[in-house]
């Protein structure tokens, strides 16, 4: 798949979500006889776009990762509740649930001796078994930290602050996390002659 198309499918719904919110954040919109604030309207647009993006991705690649499926289910359920109940708290709790779910899945995999992270990222980041173990622990703590940070921000800050955090802040923090782990990737990178254990 073209990198540009992949990026559009991954980030397009988020960009549209941010744009719709910024356009309507200071006004209410009447739909189906009910008044919706800007955040609810943005969610109403975001959910079907996310479903469409994942459908295109599945059509073109023939598969969706566990992380993509979990995210899709949470978006549909919590986004749907947000619109149905006209209550923005559900969409604000969505990142918390997603990150807690990722942390739990990785922790279960580690406890079972399974390299689930390697299965998801092995082609992009070839690491030794020890490297995957270290990275898995770090990502578990990183996900827990993001879940806690999301709870603090949506409960204490304005809708605008939370939306910018969700659409821009989380991406930036994730990029910084992987940049900060560059030394780990260098120390534990698999060389062509290495015969490290394959991800299970």
Which helices and strands, and how do they pair?
Elements: H1 3-24, E1 29-31, E2 34-36, H2 38-61, H3 66-84, H4 89-111, H5 116-121, H6 129-156, H7 159-180, H8 182-188
Antiparallel strand pairs: 1-2
Helix pairs in contact: 1-2, 1-7, 2-3, 3-4, 4-6, 6-7, 6-8
Membrane topology: Multi-pass membrane protein
Family: Belongs to the YciB family.
Transmembrane segments: 7-24, 36-57, 64-85, 97-117, 162-185
Helix content: over 70%
What's the main sheet like?
2 strands, antiparallel
**Strands side by side in the biggest sheet:** 1-2
What is the domain tally? 2
As a percent range, the share of strand residues is: under 5%
Helix tally equals 8
Order of helices and strands: HEEHHHHHHH
Question: How many β-strand runs?
Answer: 2
The average pLDDT is 89
Low-pLDDT stretches:
194-200
User: What is the structural class?
Assistant: mainly alpha
Q: Could you state the oligomeric state of the chains shown?
A: single chain
Kindly provide the radius of gyration, computed on alpha-carbon positions and rounded to a whole number of angstroms. Answer: 19 Å
CA(first)-CA(last) distance: 25 Å
* Backbone shape: globular
Description:
By secondary structure, this protein is mainly alpha-helical. It folds into 2 domains: 63 residues, no CATH class; 113 residues, no CATH class. Helix content is 76%, strand content 3%. It is built from 8 helices and 2 strands, in the order H-E-E-H-H-H-H-H-H-H. A two-stranded antiparallel ribbon has the order 1-2. Strand 1 and strand 2 form a beta hairpin. The chain is globular, with a radius of gyration of 19 Å. The C terminus is likely disordered.
């Amino acid at each position: 798949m073209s990198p540009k198309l992949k990026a559009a499918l991954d980030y397009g719904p988020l960009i549209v979500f941010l744009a719709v919110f910024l356009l309507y954040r200071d006004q209410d919109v009447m739909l189906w006889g009910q008044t919706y604030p800007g955040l609810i309207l943005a969610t109403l647009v975001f959910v079907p776009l996310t479903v469409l993006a994942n459908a295109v991705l599945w059509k073109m690649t023939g598969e969706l990762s566990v992380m993509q499926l979990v995210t899709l289910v949470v978006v549909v359920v919590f986004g749907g509740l947000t619109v149905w109940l006209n209550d923005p708290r559900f969409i604000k709790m969505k990142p918390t649930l997603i990150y807690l779910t990722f942390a739990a899945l990785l922790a279960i995999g580690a406890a079972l001796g399974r390299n689930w992270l390697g299965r998801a990222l092995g082609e992009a980041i070839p690491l030794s078994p020890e490297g995957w173990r270290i990275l898995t622990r770090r990502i578990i703590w990183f996900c827990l930290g993001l879940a806690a940070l999301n709870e603090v921000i949506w409960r204490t800050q304005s809708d605008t602050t939370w939306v910018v955090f969700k659409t821009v802040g989380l991406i930036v923090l994730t990029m910084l996390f992987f940049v900060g782990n560059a030394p780990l990737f260098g120390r534990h990178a698999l060389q062509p002659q290495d015969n490290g254990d394959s991800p299970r």
